[in-house]
UniProtKB/TrEMBL annotation:
Residues 196-337 form the Zer-1-like leucine-rich repeats region domain. It comes from Leptocoma aspasia. Belongs to the zyg-11 family. Residues 404-750 form the Protein zer-1 homolog-like C-terminal domain. This is Protein zer-1 homolog. The gene is Zer1. The keyword Ubl conjugation does not apply. Gene3D superfamilies: Leucine-rich Repeat Variant, Ribonuclease Inhibitor.
């Protein structure tokens, strides 16, 4: 079912929501006074649609860098007569006091505020407006919501001297929240009296007090007939806590796990405590004791432990206290405890570090609220993906994508997650992944590159992109990916390995793409960036992959794109060409790439006069004799000269070398090439070559063009015969055979 879920297209509801949010003005809204969004008066939307609009909006602001948030977005939902909200999930800095204030008339049933650090005590007052309908509320990580600003003295002049002080609100309680059943106060600020805060709540079903230190939890027993879920993650426990928990007999889910790295805990878990839970909490289906140190041995003798098939039957449990369970648990959290490595664990789902299944269960369970644990679990997944083969690939990928999206600003998760993605997207897993899933990977990778200038994240992200077919799979984010890579390459201090990968990616992105793509990338400063890299390498006297890839990228981006050719000349490209030729006379690949690029420049009639200098013509003539990279360098030099010759004797504005002398050397070069040479070149169009056929001004250019076509169609017939026919080459060749000025050997070849 997971495979199906990842493959199925988005629902119409999702597509419409996304479209409306990206085009609010064109769909649901109009702009008042050019700044405030207003809903069209004839629009009435039920909560199913409004909830999705709000929740998707939050998701888009968080994960899509191109999406622009709107100051007045929440005001669209201020009037319940036209827009109804019921269940909304808001996160982080996206939401401020005035946003909650804007929707205060709504009858909210469920409100999740996660890590909303900008909310202050003003929002506590707004919560009261929802008190008569709210069933489920989360204030997880809203660290400032119990603070209000105190204005000392209330005097105007004074305020400039004394900025506002933050004061803790002591008198707020959940008085009047008569329907509230589910409450998450995780990471609540110190100093708030939890007992007083909660006392008015008549019947709590689920309570999360993660990361709060309470010495006395006796007040929890007031809900002993209603509490089914209790989370005390990272609370330092004592014998008193355990006695209170044992009285909450209705509990189905208990989480007393902790992060064993966060601080020193006195409490150690014993066999007696686990026995107490099993005996008293008879409805328990889920228990999390991750991160705990076991004070004594809770396991059965190892001889017995290793016997038989692995079993979830409580009677066979390797953890002795759990033999008293009536049935296996649905979930048992054992992450970073020694117990997860035992053979018989009486639970259907176990989080731990023993194998892939346990690690994935851990990532799934802890991603939302415990990034510190999740990053360590993803690190374990990284090792599994790197060393063994992942058996639950799709699940692994989706969990890592979710974690990276959820914790865009968490460095540890970005580092481990981006590294895991590299191994999870490599070629051996390729067949199992849908287009939709691979696109999601690309999105989170680009998010990572955008948010993090950190070397490891940048390198991991670039490496992961190398696992995709370029440019095809990156086409849907073409501009963005190029901007990010150019951004990396334009940084003053650069990591060698990232530079190498980024240049390689840039080169691949401009290879075999449409000209409008190339023009767009040219306008982004691509040509300039590559020339700067070449300049740097030249100064260091190094000709490495970066140097070769940079020239190759310039060769690709100038192909049939005159604007980019002109940029190359304007930014002193020819000066760099000559310097590279002089500095690296033996580098064949480099020579081929540079001449391929100059071939592109020579195809542009308006730019050819700039190549018409004694120095350049001498260099091209001398390269006709080059044996570098088979015939490639000689062939490309001859191509450049063929286009220059095509402009006729009157365009030859130099005394040295003589035109006839150069023509003679061109004939000699072409005659020296093996007609069956296999080629290191890729033509998307023959148009620049075919241009040289119907003319009598330069027979040698005609001959070079005919030789090129003959070689390509005879060595690669499947690829190039159809191209020659499609571009009208046959009639041009037939007409040329009839021309008096054409040389006999040219006609033979054409025939």
């Amino acid at each position: 079912s997971l495979k199906m879920a990842s493959d199925s297209p988005e629902s119409l509801m999702t597509l419409c929501t996304d479209y409306c949010l990206r085009n609010l003005e064109g769909t649901l809204c109009y702009l008042l006074d050019n700044e405030t969004l207003r809903l069209h008066p004839d629009i009435f939307l039920p909560s199913e649609i409004c909830d999705k609009l709000v929740n998707e909006y939050v998701e888009l602001v968080k994960t899509d860098s191109i999406f622009e948030p709107h100051e007045s977005f929440f005001t669209l939902f201020s009037d319940p007569r036209s827009t109804r909200l019921a269940r909304i999930h808001l996160r982080e800095h996206i939401v401020q006091d005035q946003d909650l204030e804007a929707i205060r008339k709504q009858d909210l049933i469920e409100l999740y505020l996660t890590n909303c650090e900008k909310l202050t005590a003003k929002s506590l007052q707004t919560l009261v407006s929802f008190s008569h309908t709210l069933i489920s509320l989360s204030l997880f990580g809203c660290c400032n919501i119990f603070y209000e600003e105190e204005n000392p003295g209330g005097c105007e002049d004074d305020c400039l001297v004394n900025p506002t002080r933050q004061v803790l609100v002591k008198d707020f309680t959940f008085e009047g929240f008569s329907r509230l059943r589910i409450l998450n106060l995780g990471r609540l600020i110190e100093g708030v009296n939890v007992e007083t805060l909660l006392r008015p709540l008549a019947s709590l079903a689920a309570l999360d007090l993660s990361g709060i230190q309470l010495n006395d939890v006796g007040f929890l027993t007031q809900w002993k007939d209603s509490l089914v879920s209790l989370v005390l993650y990272n609370m330092d426990l004592s014998e008193e806590h355990i006695q209170v928990i044992a009285q909450l007999r209705k509990l189905r889910h208990l989480d007393i796990s902790r992060d064993h790295l966060s601080s020193y805990y006195k409490f150690k878990l014993t066999r007696r405590v686990l026995n107490l839970f099993v005996e008293n909490l008879v409805n328990l289906t889920s228990l999390d004791i991750s991160g705990h140190t076991m004070l004594e041995n809770c396991t059965i003798p190892s001889m017995e432990e290793k016997m038989g098939q692995t079993s979830t039957e409580p009677a066979k449990s390797s953890i002795a206290p759990f033999r008293g369970l009536k049935r296996p648990l649905q979930f048992l959290g054992l992450f970073e405890t020694s117990l997860c490595r035992l053979t018989h664990i009486p639970a259907y789902k176990v989080s731990g570090d023993k194998n892939e299944e346990q690690v994935l269960n851990a990532i799934e369970a802890y991603t939302e609220h415990r990034p510190e644990i999740t990053s360590r679990a993803i690190n374990l997944l990284f090792d599994i993906a790197r060393i063994e083969r992942c058996s639950q690939l799709l699940r692994a990928l989706q969990l890592v994508i979710t974690a990276l999206k959820c914790h865009k600003d968490d460095k540890n998760i970005q580092v481990t997650g981006s590294a895991a993605l590299f191994y999870l997207t490599n070629s051996e897993y390729r067949m199992e992944q849908s287009v939709k899933l691979r696109r999601q990977v690309i999105q989170v990778v680009l998010n990572g590159m955008e948010s993090y200038q950190e070397v490891t994240v940048q390198r991991n992200c670039c490496l992961t992109l190398c696992n995709f077919s370029i440019p095809e799979e990156l086409e849907f984010q073409y501009r963005r990916v190029n901007e990010l890579l150019l951004n990396i390459l334009n940084q003053s201090r650069q990591d060698e390995s990232i530079q190498r990968i980024a240049v390689h990616l840039c080169n691949a992105l401009v290879c075999q793409v449409d000209n409008d793509h190339k023009e767009a990338v040219g306008k982004m400063g691509f040509v300039m960036t590559m020339l700067k890299l070449i300049q740097k390498k030249l100064a260091d006297k190094t000709c490495d992959q970066v140097m070769e890839f940079s020239w190759s990228a310039l060769w690709n981006i100038t192909d049939e794109t005159p604007d980019n050719c002109e940029m190359f000349l304007n930014y002193s490209g020819m000066k760099l060409f000559l310097e590279c030729l002089k500095e690296f006379p033996e580098k064949q690949e480099l020579h081929r790439n540079m001449l391929g690029l100059l071939g592109n420049v020579a195809e542009v009639k308006e730019l050819r006069p700039q190549l018409m200098t004694s120095q350049f013509i001498s260099v091209f003539s001398n390269l006709l004799e080059s044996k570098a990279d088979g015939i490639e360098v000689s062939y490309n030099a001859c191509g450049v000269l063929s286009h220059i010759m095509f402009d006729g004797p009157e365009a030859w504005g130099i005394c040295e070398p003589h035109r006839e002398e150069v023509v003679k050397r061109m004939w000699a070069a072409i005659q020296s090439w093996d007609i069956n040479s296999r080629r290191n070149i890729n033509y998307r169009s023959f148009e620049p070559i075919l241009r040289l056929l119907p003319q009598g001004i330069s027979p040698v250019s005609q001959h070079w063009a005919t030789w090129a076509l003959y070689n390509l169609v005879s060595v690669y017939p499947d690829k190039y015969c159809p191209l020659l026919i499609k571009e009208g080459g046959i009639p041009l060749l037939k007409d040329m055979i009839k021309m008096a000025s054409a040389r006999q050997e040219t006609k033979e070849m054409a025939r």
